[in-house]
Amino acid sequence: MTSIALCASIGTAPASAATPPARSAAAVTDGPSFRLVDIPMKDGVVLKADVLAPAAGTPGADSRGRYPVIVQPASWGQNDLEYVAQARKLAADGYVVVTYTVRGFWLSGGRVDVGGPTDVADISSVIDWTLAHTEADPQRVGMLGLSLGAGMSLLGAAFDPRIKAVAALSAWGDLVDSLYSGQTRHLQAAALLNALQAPTGRPGAEYARTLADLYANRDMKEVVNWARMRSPLTYMDRINAHGTAVLLANAWSDSIFNSSQITDFYQKLTGPKRLIMRPGDHATQELTGFLGMDNETWANAHDWFDQQLKGSGGTSGDHGAPVELHVRNGGGEEDYPSWQAVSAGTRSLPLGRADAFGTGALDGPADTGWRTSITGGIDSGADAGVTELSGALDQIAALPPIVEVPLLPRFAAAVWQSAPYPSVQRIRGAVTLHTTVTSSASEGTVFAYVYDVNTLGVGKLISHAPQSWSGHTPGQAFPLDVALFTTAYDVPAGHRLALVLDTKDPAYGGSTPLGSDVSFSSPQADPSRLVLPLR
Known about the structure:
Layout: H1 2-6, E1 33-40, E2 46-53, E3 67-73, H2 84-92, E4 96-100, H3 117-133, E5 136-146, H4 148-159, E6 163-169, H5 175-180, E7 185-186, H6 187-197, H7 205-216, H8 220-229, H9 236-242, E8 245-251, H10 259-268, E9 273-278, H11 296-310, E10 323-327, E11 332-336, E12 345-354, E13 359-362, E14 371-375, H12 389-397, E15 402-404, E16 414-417, E17 425-429, E18 432-439, E19 444-453, E20 458-469, E21 478-483, E22 487-491, E23 496-502, E24 508-509, E25 517-521, E26 529-534
Parallel strand pairs: 3-4, 3-5, 5-6, 6-8, 8-9, 9-10, 13-16
Antiparallel strand pairs: 1-2, 2-4, 7-24, 10-11, 12-13, 12-26, 14-25, 15-20, 16-23, 17-22, 18-21, 18-25, 18-26, 19-20, 19-23
């Protein structure tokens, strides 16, 4: 149980977790040079790394023959050979690239620190070594990483002002919200990630203890403090003071680092910045890039460094909009000058009383005074899906988790549904729910799901989120607000919206006691409502 919890904080895509090739000292004969190196840290630990350098005469050097440099920490459970295919492209374009195995993994020494103080110190030591042992320009230092490497790159920007630009792919900005959004533990992701790190990682004692507590739901205050120390968001003032240029590229259905934590992080950046959001799950958008294939996400990162470190237009010649959204359900690409411009406004949808079939009206006339009860601790079948798989299916086939809304058991789920919409409903941002809850227990968890429902009653998941509570007097009503994860989704004309609330989801560690009574109501003084951000 301890090891299952260990990896909840540092995701990488299963797709990138194939065993890397064995380390070989064979040099590249054409194009950029390649060599394996050992980089000593201040505490004596040695990190395994590789260096790719431009061939002689490659454009991009300054008057002293120095090139911009990209430092790449490997992702969770991976080694320094992970990024070689993309590093070759960067080196061929005039970058010195140093990729290293993070301490605690593979042949690097030390223990896993998950972006803690030791990992952050290692970043600066790797930069020191790079400037001393390669033709790297100290005025043009960038960092590029995926997942763990992305979170570490953002932390590096906070603690080392030499880092001028970062491209963070499938990143965490707020590790607390990634592990514990809505005060609810993300357990399915923890189990999957543990399976990926177990063969290659050596967890440190603090890491093992803290993540074991997360999985066991004990000492959560200490877990939160541990995660906050490793959150780039905690050091946002430093990143902004350094003026670091930051590119963030994440997926809407990332089941490791949810979309809301990264869009919130983006909004707080004040320096040069760009946000790209696409359909998919954790690191699924980046997958083909590991094989050296053309990949839009990696190309965006390459362009970002061309712009920020070379002052050029990038390989595509396009600087790109500050916010680039790829809309789910076939909605295409949309560009915006800011996150605030993504939605044109909001519409409040009242929640109404249940009919004879147990379904309440959504987006109908205002209706208060009703009460709907369900039995707690039962999975209704409305779920967030399977970690990594569900988001990947949404990316590949526009097939997120689905349910037959008419068949959901009303004893375990409260359901509201709108009439068919005559035109497309363009949801952009975070859907929010406000309702009143009364429970027979002092603690519990509600899971909110919003679905796109077709004429056959099949609902595709648009977004969801958990929200837990504790310390409430049993039988006493209290208000509950749930902010669902940000998304961009087009509901087709003729389809309905459905809101489903239940109290158990296999992806999370909820706290609603089995058999407890949980009811939702809409007092006249505080009506229940679902608020949509719309274009």
